[in-house]
Amino acid sequence: MSKERISTVFISGLTLTAILFLGILIGKGGDRIGYAGETYEDLQIFAEVLAQVKKHYVEETQTKDLVHGALRGMLASLDPHSSFMTQDMFKEMQVETKGEFGGLGIQIGVKNNRLTVIAPIEDTPAYTAGIQAGDIITKVDDMPTKDLTLMEAVQRMRGARGTSVHLTVEREGTENPLDFTLTRDIIKIQSVRSKLFEGNLGYVRINQFQESTAEDLTREIDALVTKNIQGLIIDLRNNPGGLLTAAVGVSEQFLDAGRLVVSIQGRNGKKDEYRARTTSKNYEYPMIVLVNHGSASASEIVAAAMQDWGKAVIIGTTTFGKGSVQTILPLSDGSGLRLTTAKYYTPNGKSIHSIGIQPDIVIDPKTTQVAKQEGETPKKGEATLEKPKTGSTTDKSAATQKPAEIDKDGPQPIPQEDAQLLKAVEMLKSWKVFKQLKPAA
Fold this sequence. Notes:
Elements: E1 6-12, E2 18-22, H1 35-56, H2 63-76, E3 83-85, H3 87-96, E4 100-103, E5 106-111, E6 114-120, H4 125-129, E7 136-140, E8 143-144, H5 150-157, E9 164-170, E10 178-183, E11 185-188, E12 192-197, E13 201-206, H6 213-225, E14 231-235, E15 241-243, H7 244-251, E16 260-265, E17 271-275, E18 287-291, H8 298-308, E19 313-316, E20 324-330, E21 336-345, E22 361-362, H9 365-374, H10 393-399, H11 419-436
Parallel strand pairs: 13-14, 14-18, 18-19, 19-22
Antiparallel strand pairs: 1-2, 1-15, 3-21, 4-11, 5-6, 7-8, 7-9, 9-10, 12-13, 16-17, 16-21, 20-21
């Protein structure tokens, strides 16, 4: 990133992708001839419409409300991820990146022009109620979400702790809409958790990419190292993303210095590259990364970096496919703009936007469950999305295993209902066996 810009960068399905605090240059230098005149003409029409509405609309209107409405419409017309944030929304966004905020615990995005659950956050009202990645939220308190912007939808689901909100959800494989009444709570996200599995296999769950995530990951892995781990599982399932800098900080802990983690490119064609620093840990272990449809943005950056550089085997289902970058521009009255300014690319130069990352080994919990019931073996590549049945034990284990801290008394048993995790453990154990093979004399 250039020195002229001081920024905090976010890449997330719901959360944000960049805050530029200084050096924002709008309409200065390098503007093409005629720009000012054209802009003035268009703004004159806007002023005329505003005056007519103020004068003739059937009910009295507030100028600020009209302007904010126009701004919301303007940003929404660009793409689903660009939006106008009021002062309150902008403040909430800043609080959210610290890992604590009020609400239901749902990370949402817009996919195929529909309000889609990227992931429920574990140990939250949404997670407990059974909201799943891929659910389509059609109504909030009986109000259709069709015409709401992403930020407006978030605002409707936020509220004081103890208050309730009613969601109507469509779920693939379910004939009728599902209704959920959830009670809002304070959402606290512990970014990284870990535990030790039988066979001296380390397990690290990253819930969201926050300011402290890279630091937290180092602490957790270093604790596992003292247990003499023989392999490592990084669980990114239902991780909706977060800070780009955190994703880079996590990735570089497994990459050689100088290796490209991710690059971003805007409409001017200039590429900003993020590479592993010489001070990175570069842990060397046989490694599996678990992903699913709820793995988005920053999670996809980490998974792609591990996959492209051959540092880990990716297991699970196709990821969400959120590959655009938003820049948050603070405005003079305390509000802000969330504006799509770039796309990001994997180390191999691929854009995963609307495509997602294809796992090296596809394990669909639903398909595996059906196969067990029918006595069949799932076909390779048969499924691409996780759609577990409502209320089954597979739901939560497949979506996100609730991790525990490293147990002082020793390794933890491996959850038998989690097909993806079982496959990861099986592979790491096989890895160890093959490594020990010696050619015949």
